[in-house]
Design a protein that fits this description.
Spore Coat Polysaccharide Biosynthesis Protein SpsA, Chain A; alpha/beta
Length: 247
């Protein structure tokens, strides 16, 4: 039976955090721990979360004293959860939510049936309900040649991975040129290394598992697009990882 670590960083998302947390509470598959990290919100996000999780021991709320941004929050959340190598990490933004109550069941079937180490997939946008129907698994040519960084970006929501991959990412790949944790394009910073390490042990999940909220006015692609593109170029040009040899 797989155990899941659900990591949810959030900042000023009181309009949506209830949907996010309730989508986790509603999961039929119950073997999970959920770590929520409040990144110095100045609205009522923290109050909403505390009210929702107060009677559920599977949930933990961490409150930052200083702003850290999503990547450092994910790192801290994973470390706090103290995962085992085969535990499955699931990242969920605080203004987004899981699409249905069987998301973890679907993931469980995929991991059990394929013995994969990492998954990515399709998602629906809110409020348009538009799906990313063009998304698909990386081609065998890309996988065999370990050339993800030269292909179009496909490793989108819902992103999940086994901790054994995560723990083998080098610290420097989480940092910018000044030695600070990346505040944008952080998904590429950790997904490229883990895809490279996973090799063929990866799966694209066509089913819609994730709802990506386009209403938040402070989404990075709305206010930091140039910065995103700058760091995408840097990450794509970094040294790629070799396939992880597991015993």
């Amino acid at each position: 039976m797989n155990h899941y670590k659900i990591i949810i960083p959030f900042y000023n998302v009181e309009n949506w955090i209830k949907l996010c947390v309730r989508s986790v509470i509603a999961q039929k598959y119950t073997d999970f721990q959920c770590i929520l990290i409040n990144d110095c919100s100045i609205d009522n996000s923290k109050v909403v979360v505390k009210d929702l999780i107060k009677n559920d021991s599977r949930f933990v709320l961490l409150n930052n004293e200083n702003k850290k941004y999503a990547l450092k929050n994910i790192i801290d959340g994973i470390n706090y959860s103290n995962p085992k190598d085969n535990d499955i990490i699931l990242t969920l933004d605080g203004d987004d939510w899981l699409h249905k109550e069987t998301v973890l069941d679907t993931l469980n079937d995929v991991y059990n049936n394929t013995k994969c180490l990492i998954t990515y997939g399709n998602y629906a946008e809110f409020p348009s309900a538009r799906t990313m129907s063009h998304m698909q698994r990386y081609s065998e040519d890309i996988i065999n040649n370990n050339s993800y960084r030269k292909d179009i970006w496909k490793a989108t929501h819902l992103r999940t991975f086994k901790f054994i991959l995560w723990k083998n990412i080098e610290q420097k790949d989480f940092l910018d040129e000044d030695g600070n944790y990346l505040d944008v394009t952080w998904d590429m910073a950790f997904m490229f290394p883990m895809l490279e390490m996973a090799g063929n042990k990866q799966e694209f999940i066509k089913d819609i598992l994730y709802v990506y909220n386009r209403l938040n006015p402070i989404n990075d692609d709305k206010i930091k697009r140039d910065r995103q593109l700058y760091y995408e170029r840097i990450i794509r040009n970094r040294k790629k990882y070799n396939k992880l040899e597991l015993k």
